[in-house]
Amino acid sequence: MFASDDRRPRRGVRYNPRHRLTLVGGTLALCSVALVGRAFDVQVLNNDFYVRQGDARALREIPIPTSRGMITDRNGEPLAVSTPVESVWANPQELLKHVDRIPELAKLLGVPADYLTRKLGQRADKEFMYLKRRISPAEAQRVLDHEIPGVFSQREFRRFYPQGEALAHVLGFTNIDDRGQEGLELAFDDWLRGTPGSKRVIRDGQGRIIENVDLLKPAQPGHDLTLTIDRRIQYLAFRELRRALLEHDASSGSAVVLDVDTGEVLAMANLPSYNPNDLEGGRQDARRNRAVTDVVEPGSTMKPITIAAALASGKVTPDTIVDTSPGYMRNGPYTINDFRNYGALTVTGVITHSSNVGAAKLALKLSDDYYYKFVRQFGYGSKPGSGFPGESTGVLKSPDQWYGTDKATMAYGYGLSVTPLQVAVAYAALANGGKLIAPTFVKGQRNEAEDIIEPELAHEVLAMMQTVTERGGTATGAAILGYHVAGKTGTARKFSPQGGYSDQYVALFAGVVPVENPRFSMVVVVNEPDASAGHGYGGGAVAAPVFKNVMAGALRLMDVPPDDIETWLAAQADAQAKRIRANGGKPVADAPVLPVAVADATGAADPGLPDPVTVGGAR
Q1: Catalytic-role residue among 273, 300, 354, 355
Q2: Cβ–Cβ contacts within 10 Å for residue 373, how many?
Q3: For the chain, which has fewer Cβ within 10 Å, the N-terminal or C-terminal residue?
Q4: What share of the chain is helix, strand, coil (3-state, %, to 5)?
Q5: What pLDDT, in 10s, does the model give residues 372-391?
């Protein structure tokens, strides 16, 4: 038997292509409706999630850098400005996909390739890494021109100081993030820094900005700051201080110039200095503003304050006789020495000849509490109040901490410590009719004056100090032709870390000019001048000439009228007579001459010798 053949077409079943096409078309239509509905749901009804996901991949919020405020001197001359620079950065995730380009990038950046590879590997999970910061736009563009994937640049600002070393200690400097680190840059950082802005941008897959979407916060530039500093006087102080250090082979020095009436700091120079535009290398201690932070024993610059205390007590007058014979006196186990036996001196003569014995005897007439309070009211033992970072209070022990010899040695500047700025403030008070004004570095910011002594007393002491720079005084090298100068030398032996005093000295001169209508108070401190250089190491030989040269220039620059016309005219007549004699007695054309200060022809005091100090044993 044979099986039936099932391949024969069935009866009643007919193939209809139209039905099949309709079914397929309907299915596709339903799928399209579903897709459109889903798209509508994703893009319109419930799009928040996907928008957030898209933004997370392409939308970025980036900062808008802002420039730091400019610092100018009192005349508007720029002292610190911010210049635009570029910082090259990379997206490590993108750059590590092209490791073959890393050696090329390392060569452009000037770093070893293995070093750059290691740094990128340490940040492989990050999207941002600085490669080289604060470079010139041209240098950054040279890197970008190579079109290395994942490498970009951004705008930043870098601080520039046109005056360089001359103002480094006053201005300070900023770090790589443009934040103040020293000096006035630190003290006024909040005022100068400003507020960076921010904006929202869209980046492509290579990290490039393709669209600025929104400004979130505009950048607020920093405020400008006008200082009391006069860059011309500052340069004079820096130049003359450097000349003194080189001439006397000294280790360091400071100079401070104040406006007597306002307490404004017109100049503040220190050496050694540093270049704030290039901080790499150099000595760290060279960055210290010694005029504000470092203390010294003031030596004989203390004597005007001691004599003012004695006069204010009513126990003496300027003409009271003080017997300094035989040129020394016992002070406990020590001996106080004068340069020579001056015999009987008036109180004025004690200052003129810088007698240690005379100053000590005057101080011993005063009670401990009275003398301590009198000295302290001149600002010694407390911060000057300028607001400069790191201001030192100095050292002024209270009477309950004194030993039996302390008051006598304090009378001529030992046993207490002060900064150069404190001495300048104290002398400004004497010149300002007994009004103490805290110093300021900001133009227009004037501090309240405090009456500490009577104006008559201040004028009296100033007149006594004038004799120091005249014939027979210890600082004729500070005399300025056409002006009366009041001042005082100081030469203090340095304290030894092993105890007692060493054979090294600090030379000081503090003065005021002009005496009739005081305008400037200046202090010069020179540390460790070399006596073997043949020029002396005392305040009269080392520091006084710095005062003279700086003040002579400042008086001209500020158009301060002379108060000693007679001496100036006499010097002109003498110079003219010398020119006539040199010309064989024939008349010559008049020409103004500025001769050097009159030298001391009496030999009564040698400004090149130091003020004697307390030493052990009898003389």
Answers
A1: 300
A2: 13
A3: N
A4: 40, 20, 40
A5: 999 999 999 999 999 999 99
